[in-house]
Design goal:
Length: 380
C-alpha cells in the first residue's frame, strides 16, 4: 500500500512539473530582469540630477512602500484614496528625490509595462485569428482607427476625454470591421486581410493629418502629434489609472481564450469539426485584441510594430501553444517597450524622441525579414 502511495506521489509530482516550462520560465525571468534594469536607468536620469543609489533609495522609500495611503494616492488618486481610507489629514512629507521618482519617473515605467503587455497580447490574438504571422493591430488598421477616434476626441470633442479607452476601442472596432468587409470574398485570406489593413490604415492616417487643420490651439496640435507618433513623454499616474482596468480585463479574457486560439490555429474545418463556431469565436477574440490595443493607444498613442515583433519572438522561444505564448507576451512585451523608451529618452538627450519612432526603426526591418522568410505569406 505504501509503495502504491509513493508511486502515486511521484506520478502526481511529474504531472505538476509538466506544467513548468523551463524555457518559458527563463523568458519570463529574463524579461523581468530587463524591465528592472531599464527601469533603473529611467528613474536615475532626468533634469533633476541624482545618483543611482539615490534613485533606488527613492524607489524603496519606506514612507511610500509601507504606507497604503501614499500607494493608493498614486494608484487611484487622492480623492478616492481618502474615500477608501477615511483619512482627511495631511499625508507624510516625502523627500524631493522620492517625490520626483514616484510622481514623474516611475509612472513612465509602469505605463510602458502596460502598453507593451497590451500590444503584445493584441498582436498574438490577431495572428491567431487571421492565421497570419504578419498580423498586428498596427498592420490591420486597428491602431489607426483607435488613434483617429482619440484625435477627434482631443481636437473636436474634448469634453469626452474621460472616456478615451471606450472611444479608442470603438474606433479600433470600426477599423477592423472595415478591414474584414474589404477582405471578405466568400471568406478571408491572410494576404487580403493584410492588404485591407494597409488600405484602411492609410485612409485613417490621412484623416488624422486632416484633423490638425481644425485645431486652433497649438498645444492641442502638439498633443495630437504626440498621439500619432506614440510617446511616453509626460505620462503620469493618470495614464496608469486610464489603462489599468482595460489591461486587467484584456489579460484575463486573453488567458481564458488561449484554448480557442489554439483550436483556430488548426484551421477552420478542424475547428468546426470540434464544435466551434468559428466566425463567432473569431469576432469575440478580435474584440479582446481591440480592447487591449485601445488601452495601449489611449495611454501612449500609436506605437507601431510591438504587436508584430513580440509574439513572433516569443513563439520562436517557447512554441506556438497559446497558453505559453500569452504568458511570454505578457513579460516580453513590457521588456521591449521599456527598453525602447530608454533609447527614446536618452539617445538624443536632452531631446526626447517619441518611443513610436524607436519601435518603428526596430519593427520595420523585422517586418521585412518576416516577409522575406515567409515566402507565401501563409499561416502562423
Amino acid at each position: 500500500m505504501s509503495g502504491d502511495t509513493r508511486t502515486n506521489r511521484v506520478l502526481s509530482s511529474r504531472g505538476m512539473l509538466a506544467w513548468v516550462d523551463a524555457k518559458l520560465l527563463s523568458v519570463c525571468l529574463t524579461s523581468v530582469a530587463m524591465v528592472i534594469l531599464a527601469g533603473l536607468v529611467q528613474v536615475s536620469f532626468g533634469t533633476y540630477s541624482m545618483t543611482i543609489e539615490q534613485a533606488w533609495r527613492a524607489v524603496l522609500d519606506p514612507t511610500v512602500i509601507f504606507d497604503s495611503r501614499w500607494l493608493l494616492n498614486f494608484l487611484v488618486g487622492e480623492e478616492l484614496m481618502r474615500f477608501i481610507t477615511g483619512f482627511q489629514g495631511e499625508l507624510p512629507e516625502l523627500a524631493n528625490e522620492t517625490l520626483i521618482v514616484w510622481s514623474i519617473r516611475l509612472p513612465r515605467v509602469f505605463v510602458g509595462i502596460l502598453v507593451g503587455a497590451n500590444l503584445a497580447i493584441s498582436g498574438a490574438i490577431f495572428q491567431a485569428v487571421t492565421r497570419n504571422e504578419l498580423a498586428s493591430p498596427y498592420i490591420l488598421g486597428v491602431s489607426s482607427g483607435a488613434g483617429l477616434a482619440i484625435l477627434l476626441t482631443l481636437v473636436v470633442f474634448s469634453g469626452l476625454a474621460p472616456f478615451l479607452p471606450l472611444i479608442a476601442a470603438g474606433g479600433g472596432a470600426v477599423a477592423f470591421f472595415l478591414v474584414y468587409i474589404i477582405a471578405w470574398q466568400n471568406g478571408t485570406s491572410p494576404v487580403r486581410l493584410v492588404l485591407a489593413g494597409v488600405i484602411v490604415s492609410t485612409v485613417f492616417q490621412s484623416l488624422q493629418t486632416g484633423i490638425f487643420f481644425f485645431a486652433d490651439d497649438l498645444a492641442v496640435v502638439q498633443s495630437a502629434i504626440a498621439w500619432t507618433t506614440g510617446s511616453l513623454t509626460g505620462v503620469d499616474w493618470e495614464q496608469v489609472r486610464l489603462a489599468l482596468p482595460s489591461t486587467t480585463l484584456a489579460v484575463i479574457l486573453a488567458a481564458l481564450g488561449a484554448r480557442q486560439l489554439n483550436v483556430l490555429l488548426l484551421g477552420e474545418q478542424t475547428a468546426r469539426s470540434l464544435g466551434m463556431s468559428v466566425e463567432r469565436t473569431r469576432f469575440l477574440l478580435s474584440g479582446v485584441a481591440i480592447l487591449a490595443a485601445s488601452a495601449a493607444i489611449a495611454a501612449a498613442g500609436i506605437v507601431g510594430f510591438v504587436g508584430l515583433i513580440v509574439p513572433h519572438v516569443v513563439r520562436n522561444l517557447v512554441g506556438s501553444d497559446y497558453k505559453r505564448l500569452m504568458v511570454g507576451c505578457l513579460f516580453v512585451g513590457p521588456a521591449l517597450m521599456v527598453i525602447a523608451d530608454v533609447g527614446a529618452r536618452l539617445a538624443m538627450a536632452p531631446v526626447q524622441v517619441p518611443v513610436g519612432i524607436v519601435t518603428g526603426l526596430i519593427g520595420g526591418p523585422y517586418f521585412l525579414y518576416l516577409m522575406r522568410k515567409q515566402q507565401d505569406l501563409g499561416d502562423v
